[in-house]
Write a structure and sequence with these properties.
Blueprint (H helix, E strand, L loop, with lengths): L6 H16 L3 H18 L6 H16 L6 H22 L5 H14 L16 H14 L3 E2 L1 H7 L5 E5 L5 H14 L3 E6 L10 H6 L2 H4 L2 E4 L14 H9 L2 E5 L1 H9 L7 E7 L3 H7 L6 E5 L1
Parallel strand pairs: 1-7, 2-3, 2-5, 3-4, 5-6
Antiparallel strand pairs: 6-7
Helix pairs in contact: 1-2, 1-3, 2-3, 4-6, 4-8, 5-8
Length: 297
């Protein structure tokens, strides 16, 4: 999906709200806004996915404020919450004997956890594991607006090479539990995380902190500090992995932007798990914002 006119206000609003969390200095916040607007005035032309522009303005945020890892404490807290929820969910899934039911439960929880955002903690869940569990459970109980999980189960054959493109901190702990089940089904899974911190996206350090290196067969860097995957800044390692993958599982709306726009560049099947966060994407799928999507692209 390429950038729509309506994306402009969201991009500016996103970096402004981020700046408010990063610094109390009003002049620095203003500088972030002014430089972001200057960038968008030159580059906002509808030829790139929205994530390209969000990446650019968040890099401006880091440069202007001098904060190399924005929201560091919130990111760490989200991972701790994710691990606590994972422990509880692992006990629940252990009671299920049917493999298809296991995949459905774990995929749905990993998807519902995409509704968490370390930057908006306190809006319904905070960093308390019990409250966060209850918050995610409301999404699980609501169900999927587009549900192709049975088709996903059928696509995970023994020996299948899967590339799992992660999204945010916190939710990666539940991704890891889902990956363990994909292993149980006989798949080989490569996890791809960001090479640098940007907004809430998970990095190598986050992956190690939640034990993702023990869950996946390999953890690789998708590229530098890009919001979601960038096909222009993608690492050679990820490019090779995608070219050899039977199945790519992408998490989050930013990765949906990119993989829907560059779908023809990926030879294998692509399955998207994400929560819709804006009206333009909701219109594409014919559903309401905040709906959960689990579908092949």
């Amino acid at each position: 999906m390429l950038t729509q006119p309506a994306c402009l206000t969201c991009i500016i609003g996103d970096v402004q709200s981020a700046a408010e969390l990063v610094t109390d200095d009003a002049q620095l916040r203003l500088a972030v806004t002014r430089r972001s607007l200057a960038y968008l005035a030159e580059h906002f032309d509808g030829t790139e996915p929205p994530s390209t522009h969000i990446t650019a303005v968040h890099r401006i945020l880091k440069e202007v404020t001098g904060v190399a890892v924005p929201f560091a404490e919130r990111r760490q807290a989200a991972n701790r919450v994710g691990l606590a929820i994972r422990q509880r969910l692992a006990a629940e899934v252990a009671t299920l004997s049917d493999e298809r039911q296991r995949l459905r439960l774990l995929a749905t929880w990993a998807l519902a956890a995409n509704s968490l955002d370390s930057r908006t903690a306190g809006h319904g869940y905070s960093f308390d594991p019990e409250k966060a569990y209850d918050y995610i459970a409301t999404y699980v109980q609501r169900g999927l607006a587009v549900d192709q999980l049975d088709c996903l189960f059928d696509a995970v054959a023994t020996g299948a090479r899967i590339v799992y493109i992660h999204d945010n901190v916190g939710e990666i702990a539940l991704d890891g539990l889902f990956i363990c089940h994909l292993h149980r089904m006989g798949a080989h899974v490569t996890s791809a995380v960001r090479g640098g911190p940007i907004t809430s996206d998970a990095t190598w350090d986050d992956a190690i902190s939640v034990g993702l290196n023990d869950d996946a067969d390999a953890v690789i860097l998708a590229g530098p500090d890009t919001l979601g995957v960038s096909f222009k800044e993608m690492s050679a390692e990820l490019r090779t992995a995608l070219s050899n993958a039977d199945l790519v599982i992408t998490k989050g709306q930013a990765n949906y932007y990119v993989f829907s726009a560059y779908r023809s560049s990926v030879p294998g099947k692509v399955f998207a798990l994400f929560t819709i966060k804006c009206e333009p994407v909701a219109r594409v799928w014919g559903v309401q914002p905040r709906s959960m999507i689990a579908a092949f692209l």
